């Protein structure tokens, strides 16, 4: 990829009218990785107009032909996986193996969406008389504005754009200003796959509020899909009311883990470490409160700390790195603040807890993977999402107690439980007030699964047939045969 990125509007690569650029920095070194065109309101309006012009042709394209285009995009992503992964690691920091897996996951989401294109069935509803008919016809909601975060800068794009295109919508995408090159790589894949001009438009910017104002005020935009902070999500929901736009919002999380005394502790520790430290803990589904039964907490914590201590920290491009840098210094400062608060309140450090210093770490935003024991509900980490490589271990005595504590949060995205008692698993999963529950290591990543949360974590689903349905309206057609 070029180290100078431009917006992609109406099938053309272009810069902003004011010629503005912004820098993207490598979080492992602090150096400038590349420069990107800083799109403004004029480019946002042009992108919306292009998407609106392209909508009739795209929605009218027969489903098998739309599916072929989505498969072609997936093929380009797969073929260029190594190249795009390297770009992602340089701008986001995650280990190269994780970046490559994300590119391939993005391709899988496009393939799943391609198959769903062929399954957008209507319905025939039994009518009330022999002379009438009732049909439901699926139709694309229209132009979609998609806003994606930095932590999964390609897969979050495909999880929004794929279903939207499958439904027959056209898209304007604003990626995070911290990781625009991954999104622009997706635009390159769309161009190479010869998607019609205007079907996908991407506008990188450092002025998200200005572009969002264009999206929310444009009557052509009928749906907004947002992944990001709860604070911004609430503002968008309020702004959507003026034009009654449809919304899907995936917001923050504060995922609990429940480790019961009958769990396989070795597998539980390995599974918690895997979920906690993937992408250096920078995931909305990352475990943030690890509740372990008092009778097994010492054994579990020892296993978790031992696994954590073995995770190499370094530049994501280096062989063997398991924990890359955090996205920026502010993210490191937040982890440090949570660790300091917990230690000051009586928690015990079992491993990690510091910023690696010197050498290759000198100019990057690194923090060692950390395990804290003796964490209590009063500590900041038990209330605020850390979004970093910090695993706090708390204890509990009874099932009723841990359920109440796990549910005592405004968030409701993901939860995890470990137990070999089938009755306990079912009862606990049913009582947890979260949109997704992982049992004994189940993952939320497959494209056929409907990813999403409840409560303050948002609404709407991405993945599976549920994800495509969020981009559809159903027209109720009432017909009198002898009219």
UniProtKB/TrEMBL annotation:
Transmembrane segments: none annotated. This is NAD-dependent succinate-semialdehyde dehydrogenase. The keyword Oxidoreductase applies. InterPro entries: Ald_DH/histidinol_DH (IPR016161), Ald_DH_C (IPR016163), Ald_DH_N (IPR016162), Aldehyde_DH_dom (IPR015590), Aldehyde_DH_Superfamily (IPR050740). The keyword Oxidoreductase applies. CDD domains: ALDH_F5_SSADH_GabD. Keywords: Oxidoreductase. Residues 21-476 form the Aldehyde dehydrogenase domain. Its EC number is 1.2.1.-. It comes from Micromonospora rubida. It comes from the Bacteria. One of its GO terms (molecular function) is oxidoreductase activity.
